[in-house]
């Protein structure tokens, strides 16, 4: 059996939620300003992205991390499909057993940390803080060390677990985008997208589009304690086209390079990219940490 060569940093099962009727996704390459289609298995990945060459030299399995991701993705896929099944009955509350919440908290944590965008931020932060070190040359080892560091991911996982989870259902004419960095974080005033996995910021909220019509919000519990009664609920707030594009603005600005949609309509993405800094089209643009602007604000 041949080993996996193309390693997804956004899982194929998740991307397939955004497939069109031909079982492909529409993709906008914001760097090249090009639109094309592709099957989920051929996008949001890089050859040998998680291959551990030092393990190979030691006679150990160089694909152990890729295999660990695959096992987690299988569980997350089943849970997400169960959420869609419940939502198909127009319920107001999603049943999420503690074990499933734990799995999905880990899944979201690692999705925040595993992408090309996360690796680029790690490279730049390392080079800012370590003199005379080519972090890009050592990127895989740096990234692996972060992803396997329990002191890094366990606190993030626990914070996400403790958040108040609220589902939004979008019936507007503007469907949700996703991207090569799909899980995003917003400031408490909902006016800015933040760089990096800043889940401990007061009042932050996570925005995670699950499909063209479903989004999951995770609200920091201390600041948003009034939302406790809505934990695991389906929001009654109706999405307008502007509201949906407000969420899409994050996928456009904060993605590394590629934006995905079930429809061939990237007019909003192109319009937004004309209004914000040209650098947001560049996969190797400088990350500060700084905060990006976006349009269609909703409080």
Description:
There is one protein chain. Strand 9 and strand 10 (214-219) form a beta hairpin. The chain is globular. It has nine helices and 13 strands. The termini are far apart. Helix 5 packs across helix 6 and helix 8 crosses helix 9. The protein has helices at residues 12-15, 53-57, 64-87, 98-114, 116-129, 139-147, 150-162, 241-254, 267-275; strands at residues 6-8, 25-29, 34-38, 45-47, 164-169, 178-179, 184-186, 193-194, 205-209, 214-219, 233-234, 258-261, 291-292. It is of the alpha+beta class and 299 residues long. It has a five-stranded mixed sheet. 36% of the residues lie in helices and 16% in strands. The protein has one domain (6-292).
Q: What is the element layout, followed by pairings?
A:
Blueprint (H helix, E strand, L loop, with lengths): L5 E3 L3 H4 L9 E5 L4 E5 L6 E3 L5 H5 L6 H24 L10 H17 L1 H14 L9 H9 L2 H13 L1 E6 L8 E2 L4 E3 L6 E2 L10 E5 L4 E6 L13 E2 L6 H14 L3 E4 L5 H9 L15 E2 L7
Parallel strand pairs: 5-11
Antiparallel strand pairs: 1-4, 2-3, 2-12, 5-10, 6-12, 7-9, 8-13, 9-10
Helix pairs in contact: 3-4, 4-7, 5-6, 8-9
């Amino acid at each position: 059996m041949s080993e996996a060569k193309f390693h997804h940093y956004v899982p194929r099962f998740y991307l397939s939620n955004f497939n069109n009727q031909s079982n492909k996704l529409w993709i906008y390459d914001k760097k090249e300003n090009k639109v094309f289609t592709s099957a989920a298995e051929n996008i949001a990945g890089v050859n040998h992205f998680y291959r551990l060459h030092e393990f190979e030299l030691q006679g150990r399995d160089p694909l152990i991390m890729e295999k660990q991701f695959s096992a987690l993705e299988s569980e997350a896929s089943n849970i997400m499909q169960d959420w869609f099944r419940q939502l198909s009955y127009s319920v107001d509350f999603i049943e999420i057993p503690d074990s499933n919440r734990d799995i999905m908290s880990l899944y979201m944590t690692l999705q925040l940390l595993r992408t090309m965008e996360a690796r680029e931020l790690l490279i730049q932060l390392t080079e800012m803080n370590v003199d005379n070190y080519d972090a890009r040359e050592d990127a895989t080892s740096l990234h692996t060390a972060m992803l396997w560091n329990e002191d890094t991911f366990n606190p993030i996982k626990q914070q996400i677990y403790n958040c108040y989870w609220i589902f939004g259902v979008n019936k507007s004419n503007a469907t949700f985008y996703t991207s090569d960095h799909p899980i995003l974080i917003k400031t408490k005033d909902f006016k800015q997208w933040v760089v990096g996995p800043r889940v401990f910021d007061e009042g932050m909220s996570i925005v995670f589009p699950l499909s063209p019509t479903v989004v999951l919000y995770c609200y920091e519990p201390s600041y948003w304690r009034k939302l406790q009664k809505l934990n695991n609920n389906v929001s009654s707030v109706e999405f307008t086209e502007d509201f949906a594009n407000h969420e899409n603005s994050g996928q456009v600005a904060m993605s590394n390079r590629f934006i995905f949609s079930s429809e061939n309509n990237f007019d909003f993405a192109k319009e937004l990219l004309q209004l914000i800094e040209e650098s947001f089209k560049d996969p190797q643009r400088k990350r500060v940490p700084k905060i990006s602007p976006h349009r269609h604000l909703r409080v």
